[in-house]
Amino acid sequence: MQPINLLFILFITGLLAACSSSDKSRYDIADDRAPTSAPDVSKVEDAHPKFEPYSRGGNRKNYTVLGKSYQVMDSGEGYQAKGIASWYGSKFHGHLTSNGETYDMYSMSAAHKSLPLPSYVKVTNLKNDKTVIVRVNDRGPFHEDRLIDLSYAAAHRLDMLKTGTANVSLEVIYIADPESIALAELKGTELHFIQVVASSNKSRLELLAKDLEQKYQVNSRLQQSNNLYRLQLGPIGQQQLATKLTEKLKLQGYPQSYLITE
């Protein structure tokens, strides 16, 4: 039994040593650097903005790094800023981001201290006006004078690899939740009318109004201004339905139709 116990102890010891070695190698590059044999990233497309719910990971309201506390914004809508951009590469490539994803320095991604994750941001190099759209999925850079950390590919697009940093402007590209928009429209109290045509011939418009009411199953009204009458269809409670009907009218002989909201 003793030889078996000894082998077991040696096995466990070796396993723990391997785990310890693996933990140490997660960031085994002392200083960050560019890849030694990078693929051609000039053809890498911008990140494609779309609606994504903010993730549970990486969006704690408050967090602390290196003794300093940061607060994550509830929403990135309307966010604009100017500051210094840096970039990060091989040291973090293949490791998890704050969003729980895998950092790929060849993708158009970035790290920001307070934007909710994920967010889409247009970054402009103020020196050469080159731009890139990145998907923010990580936290950082944790330097007092840095605003955003860009991936290797994004830094290449902005022509800032050699300088390491660049003065940039940021603008969030905010995509609203389609379900929230639809619910807001359903709950909306605004009334929508479609201006179809205007004429001084009231009788002609009254006849046309009856035809349109029957054809599109919607009410109508005539709005008078001096000797001019405007034929409008409505009211329509949902903007989405009003917009669709407006487009239909334009295609079916009333190209001057437009939407009015009251």
UniProtKB/TrEMBL annotation:
SUPFAM superfamilies: Barwin-like endoglucanases, Sporulation related repeat. Transmembrane segments: none annotated. It is an enzyme of class 4 (lyase). Residues 1-17 form the signal peptide. Residues 186-262 form the SPOR domain. GO terms for cellular component: cell outer membrane. Coiled coil: none annotated. It holds the Pfam family SPOR. It comes from the Bacteria. Belongs to the RlpA family. This is Endolytic peptidoglycan transglycosylase RlpA. It comes from Shewanella piezotolerans (strain WP3 / JCM 13877). The gene is rlpA.
